[in-house]
């Protein structure tokens, strides 16, 4: 086989990545040049969400464990990076009870985001140690309880997080370009992770835990490493998000936000990077449209009361419909491949198809 | 020295938690579904109480029936509309569905009623206190203990003596075999959801009775309690759920007393950490179940 043919084959095998990246960049350039400020905001938000969703997909999609804590790690990254990069004067005014040692801290934004990611990963390394041993339903419930623990700590520890009040004054750093670059890196990392030896072993443990054990895969260990990697991405995403939104409170890292991330992963299909990407696109577009509808209804005073929660209710129905109709998500467990509509027989086992 | 007040408090809290956990574990046993929408049945029952008392002006006993009926109906309808179609898909699909159902119900109430809390009128007996051998305690604490004992007796009679109960226990053990014996799957699963809704409704009366108000996120706290209690007690049997409920109530009260005032707001966090550490040593919970097969649709 000639070198060129070999390159073509390789390019075709990994065609999912350019097929996602090129449109993301092109739309990004278009939005940057011609978009309104609203569109610019939405697209930046989309890119940041994409980083979070890819982080979630890395662990949840490959291991099949519903990772409720993910948004908690996003919060840890956001707070860590916010505390590290905000000017001491702003912090001493905004967070009156903060530990003096924390108030003094001040570093540039990029290292602050990095440290935020590392803090999240470190935390994952500690709590993942007991949690990754628990499978199935006990695992789901304990991860859910861990999210609550995160939330309790974030709302109560006012020496660090300003308690339930808003933490503000985080320097603005995340422009569309920054978010776009972040999203591209996250895409590459998540794709690489899925195809790596660790990702493959993790997927094997998802499809059949006992078969995986029998061929020598240490299920607890691969889950543990996957969990830490995913938390690292979540922490970094949190940092990027914090420097975009600049003020936030613990509410932003709780169940309703987790629902959005989860709906992105589930609607697209958690088994693949393409699925996570498509889900993020659908949900972002859907939410913006619904929000417009909600705003129009409220502004026009058609009804005697304000409509709240329409967006979430419709998204929930949409999610249930997808789960009934295509439990593996719109894309399913396989990556997209060039050419799009010429499929050579996909390997569809029950687990891969269902791997929510 | 354990005083009587502490004992009654713990027993009543444990009873409430046991009821909550029991409703969750009945569905889990058969369908292997961790039902995130369970808290919403409690919330809907609360709104049923509010609606029947404030809008329909029903007498107190009728409002309670109305509230419980609302929970049962919601439970059954969610089973029909959402859980039945995804039943034979993966376990995660089921859990995510229940989560979506929960979000949907919360926001439906948000749209249809109000995001603000509504006051629920309950009979005066709920706010009275009584003195037993020197210990002052609200009457509702005694009511919940009595109700729970009655419910537990009735439920165990149902499970042990009736054909439906036996079919449900068999289904929880080996669903496929039970179906091969001619037990209709839909019937058993619907029955589990109906009983689950019933328990949620009864527990809701007492849960709402403590604060006398209901809002769209009322269901979150009891859901979490039911989760932790079942995980701690053991997910494989109703006994485990009841034991878990009481142990959890005890743990809650002990922590409330022993934690210093500055740490009391971290109580939930402490509790979950204790539970997670406990599960590390005994992942199957306090009560070990017998053999359970993998989930089937």
Brief rundown of the structure:
Chain A is mainly α and 356 residues long.
Question: What do these coordinates show?
Answer:
The complex is a heterodimer of chains A (356) and B (297). With 356 residues, chain A is mainly alpha-helical. Chain A has a domain at 13-254. In chain A, 72% of the residues lie in helices and 0% in strands. Chain A has 16 helices and no strands. The radius of gyration of chain A is 21 Å and the shape is globular. The two termini of chain A are 38 Å apart. Mean pLDDT of chain A is 87; it is low at 347-356. Chain B is mostly helical. Chain B has one domain (4-281): ABC transporter involved in vitamin B12 uptake, BtuC, CATH 1.10.3470. Chain B is built from 11 helices and 4 strands, in the order ααααβββααααβααα. Chain B has helices spanning 4-31, 38-55, 60-86, 91-112, 139-161, 163-173, 175-180, 185-211, 220-233, 238-258, 267-281; strands spanning 118-119, 129-132, 135-138, 213-214. In chain B, the strands form 2 sheets. A two-stranded antiparallel sheet of chain B has the order 1-4. A two-stranded antiparallel ribbon of chain B has the order 2-3. In chain B, a hairpin with a 2-residue loop joins strand 2 (129-132) and strand 3 (135-138). At the A-B interface, helix 8, helix 13 and helix 15 of A face helix 3, helix 4, helix 9 and helix 11 of B.
């Amino acid at each position: 086989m000639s070198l060129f043919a070999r390159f073509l084959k390789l390019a075709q095998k990994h065609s999912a990545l350019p097929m996602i990246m090129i449109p993301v960049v092109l739309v990004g350039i278009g939005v940057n040049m011609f978009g309104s400020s609203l569109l610019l905001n939405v697209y930046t938000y989309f890119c940041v969400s994409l980083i979070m969703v890819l982080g979630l997909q890395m662990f949840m999609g490959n291991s099949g464990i519903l990772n409720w804590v993910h948004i908690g790690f996003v919060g840890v990254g956001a707070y860590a990076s916010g505390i590290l990069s905000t000017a001491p004067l702003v912090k001493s005014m905004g967070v009156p009870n903060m530990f003096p040692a924390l108030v003094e801290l001040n570093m540039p934004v990029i290292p602050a985001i990095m440290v935020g990611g590392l803090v999240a990963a470190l935390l994952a390394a500690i709590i993942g140690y007991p949690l990754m041993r628990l499978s199935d339903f006990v695992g789901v419930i304990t991860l859910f309880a861990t999210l609550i623990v995160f939330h309790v700590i974030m709302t109560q520890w006012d020496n660090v997080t300003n308690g339930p009040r808003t933490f503000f004054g985080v320097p603005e750093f995340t422009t569309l370009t920054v978010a776009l670059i972040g999203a591209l890196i996250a895409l590459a990392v998540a794709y690489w992770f899925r195809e790596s030896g660790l990702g493959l072993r993790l997927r094997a443990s998802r499809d059949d835990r006992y078969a995986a054990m029998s061929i020598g895969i240490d299920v607890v260990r691969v889950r543990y490493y996957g969990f830490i990697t995913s938390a690292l991405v979540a922490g970094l995403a949190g940092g990027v998000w914090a420097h975009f939104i600049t003020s936030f409170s613990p509410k932003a890292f709780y169940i309703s936000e987790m629902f959005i991330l989860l709906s992105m992963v589930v609607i697209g299909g958690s088994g693949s990077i393409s699925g996570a990407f498509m889900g993020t696109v659908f949900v972002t577009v859907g939410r913006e449209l619904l929000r417009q509808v909600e705003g129009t209804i409220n502004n026009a005073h058609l009804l005697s009361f304000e409509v709240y929660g329409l967006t979430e209710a419709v998204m929930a129905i949409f999610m249930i419909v997808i789960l009934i109709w295509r439990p593996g998500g719109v894309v399913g467990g396989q990556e997209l491949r060039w050419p799009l509509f010429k499929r050579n027989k996909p390997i569809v086992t029950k687990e891969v198809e269902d791997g929510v | 020295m354990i005083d009587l007040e502490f004992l009654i408090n713990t027993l009543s809290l444990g009873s409430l938690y046991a009821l909550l956990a029991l409703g969750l574990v009945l569905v889990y046993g058969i369908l292997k579904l961790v039902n995130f929408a369970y808290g919403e049945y409690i919330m809907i029952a609360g709104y049923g109480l509010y609606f029947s008392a404030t809008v329909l002006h029903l007498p107190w006993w009728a409002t309670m029936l109305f509230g419980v009926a609302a929970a049962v109906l919601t439970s059954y309808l969610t089973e029909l509309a959402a859980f039945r179609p995804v039943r034979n898909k993966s376990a995660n699909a089921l859990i995510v569905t229940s989560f979506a159902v929960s979000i949907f119900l919360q926001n439906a109430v948000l749209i249809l009623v109000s995001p603000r809390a509504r006051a629920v009128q309950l009979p005066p007996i709920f706010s009275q206190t009584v003195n037993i051998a020197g210990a002052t305690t609200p009457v509702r604490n005694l009511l919940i203990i009595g109700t729970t004992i009655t419910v537990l007796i009735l439920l165990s009679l149902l499970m042990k003596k009736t054909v439906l109960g036996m079919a449900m226990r068999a289904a929880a053990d080996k669903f496929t075999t039970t179906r091969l014996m001619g037990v209709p799957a839909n019937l058993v699963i619907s029955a589990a959801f109906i009983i689950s809704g019933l328990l949620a409704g009864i527990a809701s009366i007492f849960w709402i009775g403590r604060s006398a108000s209901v809002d769209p996120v009322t269901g979150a706290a009891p859901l979490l309690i039911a989760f932790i209690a079942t995980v701690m007690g053991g997910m494989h049997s109703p006994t485990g759920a009841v034991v878990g409920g009481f142990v959890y109530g005890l743990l809650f009260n002990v922590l409330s007393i022993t934690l210093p005032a500055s740490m009391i707001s971290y109580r939930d966090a402490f509790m979950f950490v204790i539970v997670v550490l406990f599960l590390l040593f005994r992942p199957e919970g306090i009560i070990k179940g017998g053999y359970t097969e993998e989930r089937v649709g």
